Amino acid sequence: MTHHKTDYAIIHAEILAESQPLLIQDGGILVAQGKIQKIFADSTEAQRQAQKLNLEIIDAGGAWLGPGLIDMHIHGCGGRDTGEQDLQTALESMAEFLCQRGITSFQPAVFPSVETMERTQTALEASRTAAYHVTSVYNEGPFIAPEKKGGLPGESLRTFTTDYMAQLLSFRHPATGRPLLGTMTVAPELEGTDSAWEMAAEAGARIAWGHSAAYADELPPRAGVHLTHLFNAMNGIDHRRPGLAIVPFLQQFQDATYELIADTVHVNQLTMEFLIRSLGTERLCLISDAMAAAGMGPGESVYLGRQVVCDGRVSRYKEGNILIGSAMLIHDTGRQLVEAGLIDVAGFFRIASVNPARVLGLTDRGAIEVGRRADLSLLDKELEVREVFVGRRD
């Protein structure tokens, strides 16, 4: 159940906090005006303060309390996607569907064009709901390698120009004033990559390397590299000449962050074990890369005019059987990683909330911390969503 509340208290919760101690057993929080006002290590004191302020008190009954999850790369879910003409309704429906599953913020991946950016800005201007939950926009392209485009439409690709890049960066998020373009995938081997990086950095947007045919020995030295869905749409870790997939393991890219689609189809379970055992979770961002069928079970749908078949785990174009996205959301794949013993509960919230917020430069959400949004997820001991709290009223 999703609650839109601005003033209340939660007691008797196992809190995954950002400050020490990281785990607060039988703790509580006070929320006022939609933001976390105080965190208590003792539920009794939290209850006493809440009663003094005449706040509604919610008993968590020992459930896990963490920040609302953030999916920083998603195309669709719940039968809706970003390829629809009525983008406002699609984003609102996606936001509602995701909230019910503990995901309170998301960065929709859209067709990378100036026209789509304009339509997205218009949709957010018209919808307080969409503007609250949508962090920014993810453009996979248009400056990517044709041979690594995967399921992306060929008509979306183009040669880099500073004028076109400037147009993409000119749109603003109506609620935050920040660039609407939050993340853009580029192939680092293509002409114009350096200029794209510099222009994005100056505007406050993030360049990600991906959909690339580059090899590791061709890559320019860069700090702050981010990788679009690691292992997918890039050259892998070949023992003779490794590609982009080896970047997070290299000393010269030791601060590189990277996305992981953990549905076990996009990346094999053994490969995920290798990745997490080797590098931990400090730089990993769990994403869904989900399509409209996500959360709906097996079936068929249409994306950008093409027929899509979903088996309940991934979506593929019917023609050519091309893998185009997942059908699992990050709450489900994150829980599976916990069940497999690859991460613990703290790691679950780290890769599904804390790290995406950090990569996107979001300081108002993504952690249980005083002053942040009270976008919260309450999970039972099996990590099933019990309650979700959104720090604004409808």
Q: How does this structure look, described?
A:
This protein is α/β, with parallel strands linked by helices and about 400 residues long. The protein is built from 9 helices and 22 strands. Strands 1, 2, 3, 4, 5, 6, 21 and 22 form an 8-stranded mixed β-sheet that branches. It has a 5-stranded parallel β-sheet with strand order 7-10-11-12-13. A 4-stranded antiparallel β-sheet has the order 17-18-19-20, with no helix packed on it. The longest helix is centred in the C-terminal third of the chain and has 15 residues. The model has no long low-confidence stretch (mean pLDDT about 95).
**Share of β-strand residues:** 25-35%
Mean pLDDT: 94
Query: Total strand count, please?
Result: 22
List unreliable stretches of 5+ residues.
none
Strand and helix map with partners:
Layout: E1 2-4, E2 8-16, E3 23-32, E4 35-40, H1 43-52, E5 56-59, E6 64-67, E7 69-74, E8 76-77, E9 80-81, H2 87-99, E10 103-110, H3 114-126, H4 128-133, E11 137-140, H5 162-169, E12 181-186, H6 193-203, E13 206-209, E14 226-227, E15 257-261, H7 269-279, E16 284-287, E17 299-303, E18 306-310, E19 314-317, E20 322-326, H8 330-339, H9 345-359, E21 376-379, E22 385-390
Parallel strand pairs: 1-22, 2-5, 2-6, 7-10, 10-11, 11-12, 12-13, 14-15, 15-16
Antiparallel strand pairs: 2-3, 3-4, 6-21, 8-9, 17-18, 18-19, 19-20, 21-22
